[in-house]
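As agreed, record copied across for absentees:
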Amino acid sequence: MTDTTSVPNGWVCLYPQDDRVIEDNSVTEDNRSTSQTVTMSLDNRGLAYADGFFTTMGIIDGLILWSDYHYQRLVSHAKALQLNISSEELLAVLQLYAQQLEQGMLKLVVSRAAQNVRGYGYTPSADGSDCEIWLKATAMRVSTALQLSLPDGNLVPIQPNASAICLASQIACLPPPLAGLKSLNRLDNVLASGELQRIKAEPLASKLASTLGEGLLRDMSGQWVEGTMSNVFYQLAEAPLSESKTASSVHKDNENYLTTGQWYTPSMAQSGVAGVMRQVIIDALSTTQYPVIIRSLQDEDLPKVTQLFFCNALRGIMPMSSLTLLSGDVVDFESV
């Protein structure tokens, strides 16, 4: 597996190492990194059948954020999809790229290697578990001005308040072991994201569009599960508050945002992606007064929601100030 510490421009194939990464040495003195052209076979099973998975990692100060959780994803997804991956070796290579990138994003794509079997089938042998591993490094700012301290002492970015809207798009219900995986088949999220962008572009929705940050999605069973690019947590009107806080003061104190009142998050047992940040928050609150409860979010719950935030590994926590329902009614939340 590639262990170079130089950060490539564009995609690079970490495994297998062959001639699909072609270096172009015509670089200027001001651009000392070698540009690379990556070629991929049309027989790639990720392209043909979405046979694989991906993960996206934030990098700050040369370190992979939540690296332990990304490692767990490598292990669990490789097992679920029966792919042969040396997760320890792969993580070590990713850490070398992170050190060179310093700040930005690493996107890792793992797909099953091309097979000498027609159609969907693959070889029921060790060769059938072989895979291709691709990486793209992108320099970008992933930190925010505000950081929220979790009960376990870790810091997580918290974004400015935005608004959310319930989308008409739905995501698929999947059988085990596919439910919860960040597989390469994300067509339902692609279509949902397109719906969200169209809403933002509507001339009559300019006021809503200016604050619209995420869309809430149902699965095919009608349960509200996640955002277009994130997981969701929520509180309900009947949820208890600690004796030291009142409903009007809870959301004025960022420090206690996650530890005051009962948070719920939908199950990933039949749909959605069990995200890294979702698990970080579940684990961080597991020893507090109000551990996160896995609970479905139904239509009848939405008017009773008092707090709601989305989260992912790059943006951290994204608190919402309101949620527009499919009916057009708006549920307002206390400001953080």
Q: What stands out?
A: The chain has a mean pLDDT of 86. The longest strand covers residues 162-171.
